[in-house]
């Protein structure tokens, strides 16, 4: 995330995780492992990470750097378009170097093109697919022989993952949940996901369990501690470091259920640092937390297997573990093994998430799921520790190979105090007591992150700005900006459907609203 001139957008993190150590807070006054320090290649990418991408993805250093730059740009553009296209937005993904954005309304295609992406007209919006997935989540107890399900933007359908021979059960499961058959496809897989932690004594940090000790790994440093997997300790559990010295206490933990995330608060002997250990004597820098889209390259590190790379395959997947189901995970084709849980995931120097679980191993391959870090930050109001580089979040300029087009109408509106935010909407209120919803009397779907907004009202009036979230079929207020002059709003929220409401407390006239989600 990034601090802008109108609204604060500091990154926040909160989570609970188990078993992997990617970003290790070092002991105060202790020299980091290895003699290379934290190094960066051109473009802010660590040479060690580029080497891992060459090994696992077959990419040269230039190809890997270009792909990562494209992914970071696409992440910012996707967040902006998800907000500006509102109810029409149906997901986004990278197809090679091309960012494709699905929409249900042909009228917004020009806006997608103007952002440098390729519009794809589809039948169902992301909000509709998410609602259908929620119906499946509600029928979890009847999901025999099924290992998960997720929204697949490229096919505009729900994908149900079933054991061999269980295709009919998968379709019957969708029918019982009230999901139309043409909105579902079944993927057959004999893999059985499980949380990736080992109960064995080894570094990098430990928690006490009944009958033994569990080894866990640190995810990312945040102010006051670090985030990791939720299945690695309940609140109040004490932790010890790789050196068996007292380290901290688990302050927050969720597993199973809505997430697999945790937060450990460390004592004053430990200093959170913006780096990730690749277990080859290098420290990979953490420069920000721009979320990469489906199709982007991603790398993870873990105390069992070290650093491996692959591709983001899907988001918002429900995974059925033996301990219970976890929703909202990101699916990848990267391998992992026991002891890797909790470890960090990077796209370039941008933090993506912490390892939850998976299947297979790093000898024969497999798939691994991670808990998005931005949701941990938003849920627990934590601040990610970064190297302090520029462009830590939000929309960035398109790389040189991006399509070039004229800005959309909304981007060419007359400058206002709120014009630096990428999504621009204008409207008018005729008298006190009236209100108007934005964008365009509708709503928009947003992933976990910080909502920033600015309202510029006419002189002599008092217009208030309200952010609402759809909850159990009704919009409920989650943030409000009142007072004199320009109204600004900055708040972290979990993923969901949102809308802004401009309310005239007194006066009337034209207003300008700028907003974004980071």
**Main sheet, how many strands, which sense, barrel?**
7 strands, antiparallel
Would you identify the regions where 5 or more consecutive residues have pLDDT less than 50? 1-39, 198-203, 389-415
Q: What gross morphology would you assign?
A: globular
Please give the share of residues in helix: 10-25%
Helix and strand composition category: mainly beta
The proportion of residues in beta strands is 35-45%
Number of strands: 33
Average pLDDT over all residues? 82
Q: How many helices?
A: 6
What strand order characterises the main sheet? 10-9-13-14-15-12-11
Termini separation (Å)?
Answer: 6 Å
Radius of gyration: 23 Å
How would you characterize this protein structure?
With 518 residues, this protein is mostly beta strands. It is built from six helices and 33 strands. The chain has helices at 47-57, 61-84, 109-114, 126-138, 167-176, 373-380; strands at residues 26-27, 89-95, 98-103, 118-121, 146-152, 157-162, 184-188, 194-195, 205-209, 212-216, 220-222, 225-228, 238-240, 246-254, 261-266, 270-271, 275-277, 283-285, 297-302, 306-321, 324-332, 344-347, 350-361, 365-372, 423-429, 435-438, 444-446, 449-456, 462-471, 474-481, 487-493, 496-506, 509-517. The strands form seven sheets. A seven-stranded antiparallel beta sheet has the order 10-9-13-14-15-12-11, covered by helices on one side. Strands 19-20-21-24-23-22 form a six-stranded antiparallel barrel. Strands 26, 27, 29, 30 and 32 form a five-stranded antiparallel beta sheet that branches. The longest helix is centred in the N-terminal third of the chain and has 24 residues, at 61-84. It is globular and about 65 Å long.
